[in-house]
Design brief:
- The longest helix is centred in the first third of the chain and has 16 residues.
- Helix 1 runs parallel beside helix 2.
- It contains five helices and five strands, in the order ββαβαβαβαα.
- The protein is globular.
- The chain is of the alpha/beta class.
- Strand 1 and strand 2 form a beta hairpin.
- It has a single domain, classed as Protein-Tyrosine Phosphatase, Chain A (Alpha-Beta Complex), CATH 3.90.190.
């Protein structure tokens, strides 16, 4: 299994998804399904932090269709954690496919602490000192 998924804060307003070695396209589908199930259990908006630093495959139209089909109505901001050299590529790719995938606002950062800080500033997400150090 090339992924992990957990609640990232005690309020259950953020889900942290991370790809681990070795990563396959099946991990993408499993993460999307698990994330959708977690969000469906909440009546409030839930934001996502997706650590893609170990993922190196490109999404195709079937992948994008699956993402659109599984997009929960309560999904909030998505923060993609990418390698610094991939920031421009990820932004350009997302701009080209946004007409195919309805999405909430997507942000790009290079670390998980940066993603958490961004969600606190933009969305009012709360982290306790214990969860913020994970």
């Amino acid at each position: 299994m090339g992924h992990v998924i957990n609640w990232d804060n005690e309020d259950k307003t953020v889900v942290l998804q991370a790809y681990t070695d070795p990563v396959t396209k099946d991990d993408l589908y499993q993460l999307v399904k698990k994330s959708s199930e977690m969000l469906a259990a909440c009546p409030h908006t839930v934001h996502l932090i997706i650590d893609e630093r170990k993922m190196n495959f490109t999404l195709n139209s079937a992948d994008l269709n699956y993402l659109q089909k599984m997009l929960p109505p309560n999904q909030g901001t998505v923060v993609l954690v990418v390698l610094p050299g991939n920031l421009t590529y990820k932004r350009v790719f997302l701009d080209r496919v946004t007409h195919k995938v309805d999405r909430a606002e997507t942000q790009f950062v290079v670390s998980i602490p940066e993603a958490r800080q961004l969600l606190q500033e933009l969305c009012g997400v709360r982290y306790t000192s214990q969860t913020a150090s994970l």
